[in-house]
Amino acid sequence: MWNDLNSPLRALGFRLRALLRRSAEETELNEELRFHFEQQVEKYRLAGLTEEEARRRARLLFGGHEQVKEDCREARGTSFVENARQDVRYALRQLRANPTFAVVIVLTLALSIGANSAIFSVIEGVLLKPLPYRQPDKLVRIFFTNEVFPKFPLNPFDFRDFRARSKSFDGMAAFTRGDVQLSGSGVPVRLNGMGITSGYFRVLGLAPELGREFDAKAEIPGNSLRVILSDRVWRDRFGASPDIIGRKVTLNAQPFTVVGVMPAGTAHPGNEYQPLAYGEDVDVWWPFAFGGDPARRGSHFIEGIGRLKKDVTLAEANAEMNTLLTQIGREYGGYGSWRLLLISLNDEVVGASRQLLLVLLGAVGMVLLIACANAANLMLTRAAARQREIAVRVALGAQRSRVVRQLLTESLLIACVGGALGLAMALAGAKALVSLLPANFPRAHDIHVSAPVFLFTLLVSVATGVLFGLAPALQASRTDPREGLHKGGRAATGGGHQSRLRNALVVSEVGLACVLLIGAGLMLRSLLNLMHLDRGFEEHVLTAKLSLPRDQYKTDESRAQFFGQLVAGLQALPGVQSTGVGSDLPWTGYDDNSSFSIEGKQPPPHEDFHARYHMAGPDYFRALGTPLLRGRFFTDADKKDAPHVILINHAMAERYWPGEDAVGKRITFEDHPKNDKDWLRVVGVVGDVKDQPNSRGAEPAFWWSAYQVTDPFPDALVVVRADADPQLLVDAMRNQVAKLDPALAVADIRSMDKIVTASVSTPRFAFLLVGLFGALAIVLAAIGTYGVIAYSVTQRTSEFGLRMALGARRFDVLRLVLLQAGKLILAGTATGVLLALILARGLKSLIYEVSPADPLTFTAIGFAVLVIAIVACYIPAQKATKADPMVALRAE
Amino acid sequence: MSPERIDLPQGTLDLLILRTLSLEPQHGWAISERVQQVSSDVLRIQQGSLYPALHRLERRGWIKSKWGTSENNRRAKYYELTRMGRKQLEAETDSWRKLTAAVAQVLESI
Predict the structure, then answer these.
(1) What is the value of pTM for the model shown?
(2) Which domain holds residue B68?
(3) pLDDT recorded at residue A796
(4) Which residue, A304, A337, A370, sits at the end of a domain?
């Protein structure tokens, strides 16, 4: 019945006016009340009282003038903002009065908030920002899968059947990596190339800025001399010429017609080995042509990608595709245990980094919590020192909520200043992080301190302010005015409740620091394991990449001759020990596979024997330093017309000839081998080299002799081992190539140690950051523990004095303090170790050959944390022993 | 000196203020004097509740204020009823009557 009829808008206007005219309102309010008072005085006077008596009575009647004013302000609705203004002013005054306190808290918070924002900017750019394609959540990658190969490329003809028959997709496309050599104008260069089917860009939701993408005709062999350029190549090599479409450019010594140019920032969606192989660094796209016999489907080398229809889920598409696979399998002889695996593109691109980033976010979050604990402790100490002031305010009628609000304003102010500084640090930190990121980290160029990062920082700052301010504020507001005033500032020990809170802070700080350091310790052990791995090759080997254009080197003989001459030339250089040519280098992501048959063995029904498929020249393994376990290496005698031979690795020997001597056994690629020429004999077994340092084990692999290969490999890697620094050989190597063929580009000249360094860059990055956060955490925790113990020692100075007056020795007092601190620290370390045992399971995918419950790490770190924290307490404990008995007695 | 005083029931203060202002614009002092007089000294409004109530009613838009000159030639803040305030007064008077009648009925019949 007392319903409010006015519109909220009107009330808002009133409030705003009231706020804007704040000082005028105050004057008016004063004047209005004054008038009332004078009228009252007048009335008493008229009733016959003296002036003085009239005023006294009026004042009595009037009651608390300030209280009435406050109630009026409240009634006008201006008091909330007004109070906040007052609180901020008051808080600023408090902070100015104690600048050291303010600076310490602000800097601690700035550092931890800044670290959080920097890590969040990486998470925002990599995990949260959508991929640069239209509706990226509908994009899926299509793989073959079985128990041995979790993600395996597709066969082109299978892919073509899937594309034709599947009803789950708006579009499906395939791509394969294939670099090309651009010549014609200037020095020949190797370009990062991708072979793509028609519709590839349409599936991704990208459109060329000039021209168009490949049509279905380009998929037919013979029609594929067309190319789409990247914006970068178009600008750098062709001066951004507007009439580039239709022009002929020379790629691999053949004339290609330019049909399109893709806009800048066109990102490649990656392959199964690297989530972002090349990322935005693809230079040219050429049409993938479906050549060969569609009935032969053993060779798997193209990558599938598709766009799901709007209402089709990943699971539905997966089911449909596997039904198709069974169908196609029936038509072409079966696929055995192979299945199809669909993975959302987003998971594929950033999935592997997600765990790492979340771990890092958790780590900085813990650092922030420790900083909060320190800040809370400082606030508590200050609130204790201000107990008298608060008691006075409560006695004068301040409401508890007002006291809490006022103290909270102070902590929020500190947190927001810290946050603003932290944001500045994040700007620098994010740049530093990006420069530290491993080279193959996905989406590094998407990392910026952007609007969401600002918002995140604001939220974190406010949350931080409340987190470290609330408990001390509530505590302080509980002050009993009588007690507070009575005790004054001196003996305010803060009561049991307060010291319990302080103790809890120490326990949690020490615990969190312990967790972080254990995490860092596990990562360090993992990194050391990776760095001291038995790699199976030498580091100090110079390598370079060549590709022989097919049109120039048409025959196997011409290629073999070129390699022979190159190796002979390099071998003759001074200081060179051995040199060889191979199809690829270890740890660089090569993963082509082939199926084959083994003489006298049957694969399980509907399955093939599979292994990695490489090529090597005679001295390739010797130059690389890969050991020979049995048999022999290739020699110059393993020529075209000699009996065909292969080398296999130890893993292949174990997989296919367990318990037998593999040397002398034969395999074939023919379905129906006719004569000895169709068989390849194993002549040697070489040591294992894993795909990646952290791979579980080496994949089975075999090598053709470089002189007997029938299907030319796209690339040739030259490896040179020398007595001297391999870098000195770089120019000699270039000259040697130029002497043989001046039009040939030499690419990727680097020594194997570069590859080794790059391959452990992710674990190194993870360890560096977690280690950094761990170090920060233990420093903060030590400071915090020191602070709490120092405070308690100050509070108990007179007690210690008394004890010593009663005969306690210095050592007894020292022991007393250290024992009290030690209990807390021990509890903290124990909590930390337990928490780490639980959390470390999340690190499993990030650490190599270290148990997440590694006893060595846990014991060592736990012990170190104990020692550091105890040392931090030793200083205040020492001070306690200096308590002067006389001072204590006089004070009591 | 004065007859028995009664504490104002919750919410009736607003009603009294609105009613007093319905005759003519008044300043706060006059409002409290008038109520006291008319109620034969039974109802007294303390300034501690009067002024917050006036400011609250002004915020709700039921009364508005302007500065004027008092009978003894001093600057005083005068409040007057707005159109909305008049409606509110009618509504509240009505419900007050219903309430007192109902309460009286209960008191007398039981």
Answers:
(1) 0.75
(2) 12-109
(3) 84
(4) A337
